[in-house]
What does this fold into?
Amino acid sequence: MDKTVNHKAWFLVLPVLILVAFSAVIPLMTVVNYSVQDTFGQNEFFWAGLEWFEEMLASDRMWDALGRQLMFSGIILLIEVPLGIFVALNMPKSGFWASFCLVVMSLPLLIPWNVVGTIWQIFGRVDIGLLGYTLDLIGVDYNYTQDTFAAWVTIIVMDVWHWTSLVALLAYAGLKSIPDAYYQAAKIDQASRWKVFRFIELPKMMGVLMIAVLLRFMDSFMIYTEPFVVTGGGPGNATTLLSIDLVKMALGQFDLGPAAAFSIMYFLVILLISWVFYTVMTNLDKKGM
Amino acid sequence: MAKITLDNLAHSYLPNPKSEDDFALKELNHVWEDGAAYALLGSSGCGKTTLLNIISGLLQPSRGRILFDDVDVTHAPTAQRSIAQVFQFPVVYDTMSVRDNLAFPLRNRGRDEKYVAERVQEIARMIGMEDMLNRKARGLTADAKQKISLGRGMVRKDVNALLFDEPLTVIDPHMKWELRTQLKKLHHDFGHTMIYVTHDQTEALTFADKVVVMYEGRVVQIGTPDELFERPEHTFVGYFIGSPGMNVIPAKVEGRTAYIDGSSVELARGYGPLDGKVEIGVRPEFARLSQSDGLPVKVRRVEDVGRHKIIRANFFGHDINIIAGEDDPVSADMNRVTFDAKHVNVYANDWRVEGEAA
Amino acid sequence: MTLELKGVSKIVEGQVHIHPTDLTLENGTMNVLLGPTSSGKTSIMRLMAGLDVPTAGQVIWHGEDVTGMRVQDRKVAMVYQQFINYPSMSVYDNIASPMRLLGVDKAEIDRRVREAAELMQLAPMLDRKPLELSGGQQQRCALARALVKNAGLVLLDEPLANLDYKLREELRVEIPKIFEESGSIFVYATTEPEEALLLGGNTATLWEGRVTQFGPTPAVYRQPVDATTARVFSDPPMNFLQISKTGSKIMFGDGQSARAVGKLAELSDGRYTAGFRPNHLEIGKHTDDAMEFKTTLSVTELTGSETFIHLDHHGERWVGVIHGVNDLTIDAPLSVWLDPRHVYVFSETGDLVAPAAYAVAA
It folds into this structure.
């Protein structure tokens, strides 16, 4: 359906455009500005061209951080999406318990990120944390400040705890929109539980799952606060994800030029991966998966 | 195929129904004969969907039993009842091909692939979708999807009954004709027991051998289309079947005469004294406008609806409808109406009274 | 006081939705747009309302060109197939809302709301919310809201399609009454020929984005200008048969023929298509001129007062509507009769060349 053309409508969009310009475009341009210049302090800048980009591309530091980042995002997606679907499938569909579940599930989503980090940081401590202390007591060698594996497990479990609800809630919304007739027809056709999932629930959830995966991917790829609070990127560089590394570089070492180049590439990587995701999934959707 | 017996069946959505009003489906005894086509007809909220859900096993009745060929299935789950159902909105497995959709119920029952392939081919021919077997079900038109639902129901040979829940709701009027005819043909050729729920009298009457008319949770009449038309047992049936419905006029009945405001209408049968609200019912088809005979009537409007004319008139303060043929003249000086005595029914408290032949 | 479409057309992304259309709707008339789904009924309504701007042509409202004018600035009311009301407002507020937007004073709003509610039999429900009402009442509420606006143009897009059969029948009787009192231009879209006939007024038949005929409803029904119009305006569908004319005789096949009288006499010899409505087929010879056709009966359907018969006539599918309940054997031969005065004759391109004699007489 096409719409009536009315150029006055552009005036209504103007405030948003101004807002976006101040909040996104202008800061981004500042970053671009930094990325092609060098400074020795005193607000003096020299043209550096693509030097910083070349340097960043050649450094192991960024590639390692990218590798860790991809591993982190991959693992949490592999856990959160199936787990979220599983939770959604097992949630009550109506009545008091449905509302109860919804409220409980949204709780982790309401907690500020740094608080989530703090909670887990304390929770996991061997001396005073409930989790760390208990594990230590039953003889599991667990110390996230020293052991790489323990550190990874901690930040992954934390992320799963924090964000699975989001996937579950989206999946639940998708499930709720399936008319009863489909389930009745499946009963009549004697479809197994697995087939009901595979041929009715999954296809009907596809749309919202796509959004869930995209959201979780982008969010996890940019994660900063929580691992920073828990591990501070350690032990060593073991949990130094992209954004943590970026902050270290920009604020810790004050290497503005490389950090700016880094963040632009970071931004482009997110854009690229999101685009690939989106394209692949819409194509799958068109083909009926 | 099976005979389906409803034995003292009743259902209430309340946990402790007290009065009759609490029942969505009031007590019902009925036998659905093997291989017959039935329609459940009524307006929304009359209990027809409740009854259908009890038959398909989606709902357990509060009282009574339901038997398939003398086997009590009252508490058997849907999957064990071997029934098939076509829903109001087409239910197909979008991601499967038409072929896989049709094969689905057979494969779920572990039938071997050779049998499945043969059977799918057979069904596809019956529903006229042979050349679409490899298409994805997604993106097909509503009527094609409904045909797939129907085919999925018929693909099993052991199916006890085919249930239809207002299956033509989303179908275009000109396609309705085609689907209805096809269904009728399939019933004639294969003799499945079919139960068809609808609010549309044309669909019900044209489809069914016997129509079950429901009103406020109660079955008010079970009959062939012509029985429902000629001898509606309840004024609701008279109103609901036929367009426009039956004219119902308050009257006093004595013997073989009905009196409306003192004027007399001759009846074909004799009636004893009647209590309560007494009315006579005459279908518009059996009323005739005339220049000289009958009782006075004031014509308000004549509607030419093609096949016939509908005359909207006032008769002793009551609105009545009269149907005249396409070629019948209707002129301004026609201000009297006669009723065909054979087709005048008498009602006491909304239920038809069987008169005595003279 | 008219609404005029002058050469109006609508093309969206290279696809023609509406072919150039001229249509003049007079004030105080009921106009039915009749056609199957996606024949362009809604598209034409949107053009009339100003929701869409035509690709070409002009929309003239009371002599003034309103082609580019926004819908908000026109006096238009619209009712859709879905029951569209404000769910959080009471029925009273729903009906009052368009007048409040126009700044009508309070007493006048109250008077008009109560008047409309009375007319639509909603008076006892004014304090309720739309979702507490039945489907028929919800749609009455939407209709009432459209009426109080005193819009010069009221567009009804299949307003009864989502209602129970019997409710539809009742509202169908009410709508012409309401319309008679309002004096606006009513446009009513429907897919059902029977609905068009019951509403009366004028009918425009639509087929694939083209208005094939426009005129008084019974006239369009009885004297369709071409086979397409006849097909659109016939339920059950019109039956067709290839015929030929030689001299003073029209050959109908099966050895049946009729004398070429009236308009038929003027036709040149050659092949034509005969069309006749299902209700004109009979299963007995009732008139001297009636021609016999041997067919095979494939399906019968009873409605109580009538019998629908589905026939196979040398591979062509015919439908007949017969009075009364008839006990006929399926899959057996059946003879049907047709009086030549019920036959429309179309050229091979589908234009009407001779109307049915009975229709001319009527």
About this structure: Residues 97 and 165 of chain B are 24 Å apart (CA to CA). The radius of gyration of chain B is 24 Å.
